[in-house]
Amino acid sequence: MQFAGNKDLEERFIRRERVFDGYILHIDHAEVTLPNGQKAMREIANHIGASAVLPVDDNGMVTLVRQYRAPVEKVLLEIPAGKLDAPGEDRLAAAQRELQEETGLTAQNWIHLTDIATTPGFSSEIISLYLARQLSKGETHPDEDEFLSIVTLPFADAVSMALSGEITDAKTICALLMAGQYVNGGKHESI
Amino acid sequence: MQFAGNKDLEERFIRRERVFDGYILHIDHAEVTLPNGQKAMREIANHIGASAVLPVDDNGMVTLVRQYRAPVEKVLLEIPAGKLDAPGEDRLAAAQRELQEETGLTAQNWIHLTDIATTPGFSSEIISLYLARQLSKGETHPDEDEFLSIVTLPFADAVSMALSGEITDAKTICALLMAGQYVNGGKHESI
Q1: How far is B156 from chain A (nearest CA, A)?
Q2: Is B45 helix (H, G, I), strand (E, B) or coil?
Q3: Cβ contacts (< 8 Å) between B126 and chain A: which residues?
Q4: Binning pLDDT at 50, 70 and 90, where does residue A1 land?
Q5: What is the CA radius of gyration of chain B?
Q6: Do the beta carbons of residue A158 and residue A164 sit within 8 Å?
Q7: ipTM confidence
Q8: pLDDT at residue B34 above 70?
Q9: pLDDT at A4 > cutoff 70
Q10: Does the beta-carbon distance from A71 to B118 stay under 8 Å?
Q11: CB 3.0 to 4.6 Å from B104: which of A67, A180, B10, B138, for a disulfide?
């Protein structure tokens, strides 16, 4: 689908100031020029980005992780995922590392599902989503302060949990619902 | 699906301190006790939450908005959405307001698709996703500093754009792929 140019929508940065430096988040306040020439302030949480991976084995079983998430004060069921180690780190390599660390799995077949902007209204975070197949089991190596519980269930059951609202993590919903074209259909586009 | 208790995964807050107060984001540093008794720091971006809505008319046409997003420095194609006006605001009312403000549409039929945790690793934001049908047209009332371009396209084309990676906004991908069970299938669960 083609759209007319973006000139009527784009904002131009006039100045941008770091107002908070945290462990994960680095917040800027930016003054922008709006398309009508007026000015506005934008608050931007700079985030290094992340990779996440849906592993599906030859029997159609997916491996997910249960993990306590302090910001929402709940244990969530999610696909294995993790932040990039450094800006510009290869996102497939990051996905492979996180899959191995959190679940012990390695995969012969990798498909790039998409890159999602998780919260483009306030953060720069982009998560690259992968489907991993032809899996082999190994040892897990979770981060020191990371407590995970591994859950294995049929792909169709995981999709049902996304559709019913039992799975609430956005990247996990995106990955499960995008993977159907490969897992159920015959689409093949390995990297 | 039933899981064993969460006691082996939960973290307990020991202390929590506000370290940054922004326009949208309010950042806390929290010290937590891990399941093994050790301590760790968590950075939490408190966010008021939001509602978003996928409008689909009687001819199967969806209305999306193109909008410049400063954090990712791109114009994105998204479902109409907006932050809650106040903590605890009714999320359906917020979805109805945002739909009307951004697209001029009102809807007779509302279906709650799900609530997504957009970034549970670092923010508390929960977005409630709705499907709106039986639409009527009216006037738009975008916020003063909000420049939007309205796009109308067939539901199937929007789903294809999500699956192909042309649509990258996570809430929009979730809403489009979750709405299929209602738009294509016969599922009816209006509020």
Answers
A1: 12
A2: strand
A3: 72, 168
A4: low
A5: 19
A6: no
A7: 0.94
A8: yes
A9: no
A10: no
A11: B138
Contact A151, B98 (CB under 8 A): no
Residue B107 distance to chain A (closest CA, Å): 22
Cβ within 8 Å, pair B117-A76: yes
Q: Which residue of A has its CA nearest to B71?
A: A124
Q: Assign A139 to helix, strand or coil.
A: coil
What pTM was estimated for this model as a whole?
Answer: 0.95
Nearest chain B residue to A29 by CA distance is B22
Q: How confident is the model at residue A140 (pLDDT cuts 50, 70, 90)?
A: confident
CA distances from A190 to A62, A112, A128, A131, A174 (A): 18, 7, 15, 9, 18
pLDDT digit string, tens, across residues A36-92: 999 999 999 999 999 999 999 999 999 999 999 999 999 999 999 999 999 999 999
Alpha carbons A141 and A148: distance in angstroms, whole number: 11
How far does the CA of residue B154 sit from the closest CA of chain A (Å)?
11
Name which of A22, A43, A81 is nearest B24 (Cβ-Cβ): A43
Q: Which residues of A are catalytic?
A: 144
Give B63's Cβ-side CA count (13 Å radius): 29
H-run or E-run covering B20 = strand B12-21
A135 pLDDT above the threshold of 90:
yes
